[in-house]
Amino acid sequence: MDYGMKNRLSRVIKPDGRCMFMPLDHGYFLGPTSCLEKPGETVKPLLPYCDALFLTRGVLRSCIDPTLDKPIILRVSGGPSIVGEDLANEGITTSIEEIIRLNAAAVGVSIFVGAPYETQTILNLAELVNQCEDYGIPVMAVTAVGKETEKREARFLSLSCRIAAEMGAKVVKTYWCAKDFDKVVEGCPVPVVMAGGPKCDTEREVFDFVYDGLQKGAIGVNLGRNIWQSPFPAPMAKALYAVIHENAKPNEAEDMFNELKNKK
Question: Which domains does the chain have, with CATH numbers?
Answer without folding.
Answer: 3-230 (3.20.20.70)
